[in-house]
Amino acid sequence: MIHDPRKNAKRVVLALWALAAIYYFYVSSDYIRSEMNDNKMAEYTHYVVQLAGSEARTPKEVKALLIVKADELEIPLKPEEIKVLGTGQNLKVSLQYDVNIDFPIFQHGFYTKHYEHDVAYRQPR
Questions:
Q1: Which residues pair with 92 in a beta bridge?
Q2: Angle at the Cα of 96 (from 90 to 100), degrees rounded to 5?
Q3: Would the pTM count as exceeding 0.85?
Q4: In sequence order, what are the beta bridge partners of 74?
Q5: Which residues have CB under 8 Å from 110's CB, separation 6+?
Q6: pLDDT digit string (tens) for 26-69?
Q7: 56, 87 in Cβ contact below 8 A?
Q8: In the chain, where are the structural domains located?
Q9: Which residues have CB under 8 Å from 54's CB, separation 6+?
Q10: For residue 38, which of 44, 60, 94, 97 sits 20 to 30 Å off, Cα-Cα?
């Protein structure tokens, strides 16, 4: 039998590549999840603004609806990050929040993604 001294080195390199791939896919999946949750939040914000504008809901009710949805989607949205201007057909809502993209092994994210949404009531046709 011929003994290849580089065989162990090849295994170590393969293991390192496998770890790098797992790390990359973990970070990518966390980023994609945050993007999908942001898209859902944007759609829901449009829905709430249209509903609240047509039913003349108060700014407090609008904020409460958005906070509940953000909690459901695990978005770290605080009440002070929601700005509600006007009521009824003059309703405008602005959201601004940051989401940490987590890295495995570390306790906190090293990358923060900033999201902004400005939505105004539109008259139905």
A1: 85, 120
A2: 160
A3: no
A4: none
A5: 101, 103
A6: 888 888 999 999 999 999 999 999 999 999 899 999 999 999 99
A7: yes
A8: 7-120
A9: 121, 124
A10: 60
